[in-house]
């Protein structure tokens, strides 16, 4: 096959590209420029947008022996990921930009461009697996549970999964590093990126405040009593405990958590942990990474990229104007924000996902 | 798969004569600035080369300052002349350049402006890629007392148009304003004489003419003392310091001599290939638009062509996959393609500039290579159009 390897300049995508080439595919390495001014989004060594990263990606491509180009995806990235991130926070939600980047950039803009140019698919260094079962390509968790990235890929539809190649899904991160070293890739020991790549300092709240402006509002309890002030409701996430700086302590001495973010009246509602308990999660317009389920099924729901999976019953509710994915968890989940993705698993297989719009 | 190199304006293969000369000279030990016999021998070669080059490009040998690159020579010209002129008269803060200079001229001028030292005025170019002489004349007339220097390229590296340097020199001469010309693309391809052009300074470089990368020269009028960029041993007329690159210089001059000896026949051959290339592309892709003039005052080998509804980086990738090397405008340090400032200056839109490619031919190209391009181009452009993000 003819494949485009998306190379961030990190160790995973470098080994993924090397493996794809070794498997006999015709591979071309592409580094995605996500900012017109590469220093704008990140100035450190980690992330995806520095001159150093594009240099590392180029060197990896040289070592692997594949052609290498830079693709300017800055307009698409800004519009679909950065703007979306801001808009979602402004609306009181907690978006996951990596998910949007996979959905709209890596396996949409890049995959579309690759296909138009005569390529068959895109190779990435994501830790996830695909298996062809009964003529259908399905998405599975990676072998390395600590690195599994199937959560951020659960936004891919069947066509996108068909064009996706994840050569690292059967390997642990430690072994990927060892392999990188033996392949002579200088990025073998390069640290992982953890933060959001377009927030240079890692200071999410500060970055949001800079763009959305400071908006002083009240922090209140569930009865509406004012407990303190904040600089912008959008910097808070449901379930958040730190950074509340409340002057009035909870009577029982229990720590307090964000229960609700109300962007319209710029209020943050706090309460004790028990108030965060959630039994039912729902999301509109789900995406299926395989066959659409019928009836109620038993499975697992995951609500954070590296969170644990909770056993649940899930079903598709098609009674409303838009189909709704619902999951009833066997044990309560604490601190769940709208805007996060709910991903349903059947064992290790990714069933599908939806953006959380409601919790009970 | 055939490998076809249509990017001679970026760099062209080293000629066998130049390579031989480089290797021969590299075998010898001796710093040309040393006083012993080894040094004298190396110096002898450098000075013979300098004299040969002076004869070839119509200047006095003492007017040649060897540098490490065309970029260095251009920086030395722009900054060195600017600082020198400003020192003579604090009113002289204005730098006149064309709006489509190479970055090696544009950026030092912009740097001087951004650091608050200079003011830049860019003279327009027309849609065919020629400087607006009337605007140049009126600016010189109105602001001659403020002008530190004028720099206009001899020929444009992206579209290949040759500029009316002689006319500009006449305008500058009236007020004794120094005129510099970046002649990197012209050397060895078209007639080039420092004296006939009545220039104050001129840049030439080895690797565009079949010499090695890493050696170039600033030709600077005799008796002129400009501010150096590099301070040190003062090897080149006390204006440029650094150990003299004897092998590079010898090779540079051999390459130039060969190119100038064969200039007429090379021009004919390359120009004919270019015409065939353009006709072939037009034959296959009916809606292309030429950014370079078809004929007239142009370099023989540069054809800049717009392929509507494409992005140049997709075309470059797809041509590269077919073994054909061509080029787009410049890219930033991280490698992101930018719309060519040359094409924008010529009045093309951002979208037009982004869908243009430069093919630059040299003596190593052949008709069969153009026939190979003919066989691939439809596939390349169809795919590039399918991938177009418009």
Question: Which terms would index this structure?
Answer:
heterodimer, A: 360 residues, alpha/beta, Rossmann fold, SH3 type barrels, Elongation Factor Tu (Ef-tu), domain 3, 3 domains, six-stranded antiparallel barrel, five-stranded parallel β-sheet, 9 helices, 17 strands, B: 390 residues, Aspartate Aminotransferase, domain 2, Aspartate Aminotransferase, domain 1, 2 domains, seven-stranded mixed β-sheet, three-stranded antiparallel β-sheet
Please explain how this structure is put together.
The complex is a heterodimer of chains A (about 350) and B (about 400). With about 350 residues, chain A is of the alpha/beta class. Chain A folds into 3 domains: about 1-190, HUPs (Rossmann fold); about 215-270, SH3 type barrels (Roll), CATH 2.30.30; about 275-360, Translation factors (Elongation Factor Tu (Ef-tu), domain 3, Beta Barrel), CATH 2.40.30.10. Chain A contains 9 helices and 17 strands. In chain A, strands 12-15-14-13-16-17 form a 6-stranded antiparallel beta barrel. In chain A, strands 3-2-1-4-7 form a 5-stranded parallel beta sheet, with helices on both faces. In chain A, a hairpin with a 6-residue loop joins strand 14 and strand 15 (about 325-335). In chain A, helix 1 runs parallel beside helix 3 (about 50-65), helix 1 crosses helix 8 (about 175-180) and helix 4 (about 75-90) runs antiparallel to helix 5 (about 95-115). The termini of chain A are far apart. The model of chain A is unreliable at about 40-50 (pLDDT under 50). With about 400 residues, chain B is of the alpha/beta class. Chain B has 2 domains: about 15-260, Type I PLP-dependent aspartate aminotransferase-like (Major domain) (Aspartate Aminotransferase, domain 2, 3-Layer(aba) Sandwich), CATH 3.40.640.10; about 265-385, Aspartate Aminotransferase, domain 1 (Alpha-Beta Complex), CATH 3.90.1150.10. Helices cover about 40% and strands about 15% of the residues of chain B. Chain B is built from 12 helices and 12 strands. Chain B has helices at about 15-25, 35-55, 70-90, 105-115, 135-145, 165-175, 245-260, 265-285, 310-320, 340-345, 350-355, 365-385; strands spanning about 5, 65, 95-100, 120-125, 145-150, 180, 200-205, 215-220, 290, 300-305, 325, 355-360. In chain B, the strands form 3 sheets. A 7-stranded mixed beta sheet of chain B has the order 2-8-7-6-5-3-4, with helices on both faces. In chain B, helix 9 crosses helix 12. The chains are: A alpha/beta (about 350), B alpha/beta (about 400). The interface of A and B includes residues 69 and 72 of A.
């Amino acid at each position: 096959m003819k494949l485009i390897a998306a190379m961030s300049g990190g160790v995973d995508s470098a080994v993924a590209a090397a493996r794809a080439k070794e498997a006999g595919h015709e591979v071309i390495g592409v580094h995605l420029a996500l900012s017109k001014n590469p220093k704008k989004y990140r100035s450190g060594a980690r992330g995806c947008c520095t001159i150093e990263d594009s240099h590392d990606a180029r060197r990896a491509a040289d070592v692997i022996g594949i052609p290498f180009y830079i693709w300017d995806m800055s307009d698409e990235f800004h519009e679909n990921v950065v703007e979306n991130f801001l808009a979602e926070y402004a609306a009181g939600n907690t978006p996951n930009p990596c998910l949007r980047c996979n959905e709209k950039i890596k396996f949409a803009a890049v995959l579309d461009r690759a296909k138009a140019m005569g390529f068959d698919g895109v190779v990435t260094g994501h830790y996830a697996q695909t298996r062809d079962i009964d003529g259908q390509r399905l998405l599975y968790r990676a072998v390395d549970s600590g690195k599994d990235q199937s959560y951020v890929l659960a936004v891919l539809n069947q066509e996108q999964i068909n064009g996706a190649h994840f050569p690292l899904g059967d390997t642990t991160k430690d072994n990927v590093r060892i392999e990188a070293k033996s392949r002579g890739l200088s990025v073998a020991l390069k640290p992982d990126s953890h933060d959001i790549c377009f927030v240079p300092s890692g200071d999410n709240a500060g970055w949001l405040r800079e763009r959305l402006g400071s908006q002083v509002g009240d922090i209140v309890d569930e009865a509406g009593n004012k407990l303190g002030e904040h600089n912008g409701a959008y910097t808070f996430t449901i379930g958040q405990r730190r950074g509340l700086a409340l002057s009035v302590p909870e009577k029982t001495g229990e720590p307090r958590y964000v229960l609700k973010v109300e962007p319209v009246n710029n209020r943050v509602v706090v309460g004790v942990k028990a108030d965060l308990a959630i039994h039912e999660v729902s999301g509109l317009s789900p995406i299926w990474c395989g066959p659409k389920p019928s009836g109620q099924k038993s499975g697992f729901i995951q609500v954070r990229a590296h969170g644990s999976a909770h056993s649940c019953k899930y079903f598709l509710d098609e009674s409303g104007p838009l189909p709704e994915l619902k999951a009833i968890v066997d044990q309560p989940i604490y601190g769940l924000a709208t805007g996060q993705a709910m991903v349903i698993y059947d064992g290790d297989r990714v069933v599908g996902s939806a953006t959380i719009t409601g919790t009970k | 798969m055939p490998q076809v190199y249509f990017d001679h304006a970026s760099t062209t293969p080293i000629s066998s004569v130049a390579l031989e000369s480089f290797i021969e000279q590299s075998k010898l030990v001796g710093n040309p600035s040393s006083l012993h016999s080894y040094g004298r021998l190396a110096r002898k070669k450098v000075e013979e080369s300098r004299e040969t080059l002076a004869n070839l490009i119509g200047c006095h040998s003492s007017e040649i300052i060897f540098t490490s690159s065309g970029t260095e020579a251009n920086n030395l010209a722009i900054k060195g002349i600017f600082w020198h002129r400003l020192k003579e008269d604090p009113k002289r803060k204005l730098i006149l350049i064309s709006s489509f200079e190479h970055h090696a001229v544009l950026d030092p001028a912009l740097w001087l402006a951004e650091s608050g030292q200079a003011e830049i005025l860019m003279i327009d170019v027309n849609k065919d890629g020629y400087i607006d002489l009337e605007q140049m004349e009126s600016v010189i007339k109105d602001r001659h007392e403020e002008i530190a220097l004028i720099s206009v390229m001899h020929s444009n590296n992206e579209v290949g148009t040759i500029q009316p340097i002689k006319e500009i020199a006449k305008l500058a001469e009236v007020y004794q304003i120094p005129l510099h010309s970046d002649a990197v693309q012209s050397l060895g391809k078209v007639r080039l004489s420092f004296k006939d052009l009545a220039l104050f300074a001129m840049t030439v470089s080895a690797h565009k003419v079949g010499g090695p990368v890493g050696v170039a020269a600033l030709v600077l009028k005799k008796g002129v003392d400009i501010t150096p960029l590099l301070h040190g041993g003062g090897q080149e007329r006390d204006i440029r310091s650094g150990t003299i690159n004897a092998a590079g210089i010898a090779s540079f001059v051999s390459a130039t001599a060969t190119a100038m000896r064969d200039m007429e026949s090379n021009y004919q051959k390359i120009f004919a290939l270019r015409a065939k290339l353009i006709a072939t592309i037009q034959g296959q892709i009916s809606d292309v638009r030429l950014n370079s003039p078809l004929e007239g005052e142009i370099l023989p080998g540069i054809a800049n062509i717009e392929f509507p509804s494409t992005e140049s980086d997709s075309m470059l990738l797809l041509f590269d996959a077919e073994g054909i090397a061509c080029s787009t405008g410049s890219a930033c340090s991280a490698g992101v393609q930018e719309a060519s400032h040359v094409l924008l200056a010529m009045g093309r839109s951002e979208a037009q500039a982004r869908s243009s490619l430069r093919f630059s031919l040299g003596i190593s190209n052949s008709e069969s290579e153009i026939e190979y391009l003919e066989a691939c181009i439809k596939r390349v452009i169809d795919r590039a159009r399918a991938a177009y993000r418009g």
